[in-house]
């Protein structure tokens, strides 16, 4: 009988759809060790590496002996939960050779992430041969993804790159499937797909945009507007960010569906072209920022006005450790600060997760210090100074020498 190991979402082991772990007395340390072995299956693992990742800060005088004891107890659990009179190595096997531990998955054990990756690979290979087969394979893969990899272990550092890997695979497969369904004009399918995906990845903006576009295609204009208002409110409250260029573009598409078809006049065109939020600086993506940068540089060479480029960097204080996700969140909060602190003609964009680039139009060199002070003051009014620090640099568009 085959055994199934669930890692995408909550961790579990099941036979015939029945959980084996729910009936057993679970030990946090033991199952964390089991999850670690499953994650790094087939690899040679030094005892020191396992101890450092799982029990960093353990005050035991003999951590290797603690590890040996835990592995012995884990083997005992295998004997308890696995069917009797069947070779355990057909399910799981832990060996020790030349100073390394190695965990192997047997032929009677099925791992969901292995199936997940297999279906995606098969879908990719079928995409150019048989599009219908590719759709079925991508759907099988997405059905397996019930949440973040080993989602119960939210704070394990060693899990972060693995969890991100499977999340990226999921989103890539999702977007490939959506694009196929768009070509087939199966918009109801896209709506259903996106609604399921949003439960798993609620902050992935692209999913919401695909959903709204599909709603518009099937005539659900009011639903599209309601969802737009929901996602913009969610991102503002949870992430501290306002509408991105992608969301602004989808809002314009919603307005297009509301507008009556037919001839228009120049006044209506002007209204449609205008940005609804003209207060403060404008946030744009990096490609558009680059376009504006080169336009302004050409204009400066022609009319002699002084434009500056500025770079804001948020980093952890050297004396303190800080959470990277919290650092990224503070960078996003800076969006509202810059809209308030800068002028209407200024433009800014996210350069990466911790840096923001600004184009200051017609700025005076002697006013740069005042701009820096205003930004820092407005930011500290929202986010109390803690283990983060801000640096702001300025550079003239037509010079390579830093001013500040």
UniProtKB/TrEMBL annotation:
This is Bacterial transcriptional activator domain-containing protein. InterPro entries: AfsR-DnrI-RedD_regulator (IPR051677), BTAD (IPR005158), Sig_transdc_resp-reg_C-effctor (IPR016032), TPR-like_helical_dom_sf (IPR011990), WH-like_DNA-bd_sf (IPR036388). PANTHER family: TRANSCRIPTIONAL REGULATOR REDD-RELATED. Residues 111-255 form the Bacterial transcriptional activator domain. Signal peptide: none annotated. It comes from the Bacteria. It comes from Lutispora saccharofermentans. Coiled coil: none annotated.
